[in-house]
Design brief:
The chain has 152 residues and is mainly α. The chain contains seven helices and no strands. The chain has one domain. Helix 5 crosses helix 7. It starts with a helix and ends with a helix. About 17% of the residues have low confidence.
Length: 152
């Protein structure tokens, strides 16, 4: 999904902040919210703008009618409830949405840098520890596979 500047300034070169926007939409998709759910306008992809956050132009255009909190509740929490895969608790939700708001800032210069993305509470308390656990599990599985192959 394109960042706003790609839509509103199609001739301007994209900066690293466009990658931050793209990362935010990737995180949304991993959480269960498909970026395509937030498209408006034509189907050619040029009118993509994420309506999950109240952007600067919202008041004038009326294009967005859900806050990021509402989108998260409807698109993630209710999905997780329905499929019984565990919901985000209130503290994690607040931390996650705080980061998403920053990453999806309408103005590119207001988005965090890659280094800044690793510092927020959501990354430090939830993402990085889960990532480290995943690496440990992967390593343990790899060792198990190697042991099995040695026995043959």
């Amino acid at each position: 999904m394109q960042p706003p500047e790609a839509r509103f300034e199609p001739q301007a070169p994209l900066s690293f902040s466009a990658d931050i926007w793209s990362l935010s939409t990737t995180i949304w998709e991993i959480l269960g919210i498909k970026a395509g759910h937030f498209q408006y306008g034509g189907s050619d992809g040029t009118n993509e703008v994420n309506s999950s956050i109240r952007m600067d132009f919202r008041k004038n255009t009326g294009m967005c009618d859900l806050s990021i909190d509402e989108v998260f509740e409807e698109g993630v929490q209710k999905y997780r409830q329905k499929h019984r895969v565990g919901e985000f608790d209130q503290k994690e939700t607040i931390a996650l949405l705080e980061l998403m708001r920053k990453m999806m800032a309408f103005q590119p210069e207001e988005r965090p840098t890659v280094k800044e993305i690793l510092k927020p509470e959501w990354m430090v308390k939830w993402v990085l520890p889960d990532f480290k656990r995943s690496l440990q599990i992967g390593q343990a599985l790899q060792e198990e596979v190697e042991k099995t192959q040695q026995c043959k």
